[in-house]
Design brief:
The chain is α/β, with parallel strands linked by helices. It has a single domain, classed as Alpha-Beta Barrel (TIM Barrel), CATH 3.20.20. Helices cover 25% and strands 25% of the residues. The protein contains six helices and nine strands. It has helices at 53-61, 81-90, 150-162, 165-168, 182-192, 202-207, and strands at residues 3-13, 23-29, 49-52, 67-71, 94-99, 113-118, 142-147, 170-175, 197-198. The chain has a nine-stranded mixed sheet with strand order 3-1-2-4-5-6-7-8-9. Strand 4 (67-71), helix 2 (81-90) and strand 5 form a beta-alpha-beta unit. The protein is globular. The two termini are 28 Å apart.
Amino acid sequence: MGQIRITEIFYSLQGESNTVGLPTVFIRLTGCPLRCVYCDTAYAFTGGKKTSIADILSEVQQYGCRHITVTGGEPLAQPACLELLTELADRGYNVSLETSGAIDVSGVDPRVVKVMDLKTPSSSEMDKNNYGNIAYLTAQDQVKFVIGTAEDYGWSKAVLQNHGLDKRCQILFSPVMGQQNPTQLAEQILHDRLPVRFQIQLHKLLWDDARGK
């Protein structure tokens, strides 16, 4: 087995996606090629500890939890992430991958749920979106749009419709905390009858921006 640079492994409640609220072990990989203006995990851009996949699996096992999320940073920036995902799936875990959508997802084990974050205009990284990844999404996967402005909402609505995303996978609309009023976003979704799941980041409501939560 290979090695991966990781920032942290921790046990918490899933704060978003369609498994929100479920106890989950998070494996946060170090490094990301993007610099979104609203990023809340900049501490994972650098540093970390190079760790063998075998040691990661051993630590994860100690929590006795079936739900595992591999996140970052951008996990796929490290090629060995693909091996880690497969090893986790081989052991019967329910595995999800949180990815920016900027890096090719075609090599991700099909047993892994991909939660792909298409970058909206206010992120400052919209030009990094790899729309070719949409072809590799299935009904178990999810595309997340982080909404910070009216422009973000209009853009996200257009991408959803132009690519027929709701026919391919699940869609998540999430407000930028402290920037986009969540009630207004919810009312806009209802007004436009969008086939999306509205979500607020549960972990931020419970623990604010505490690291490892």
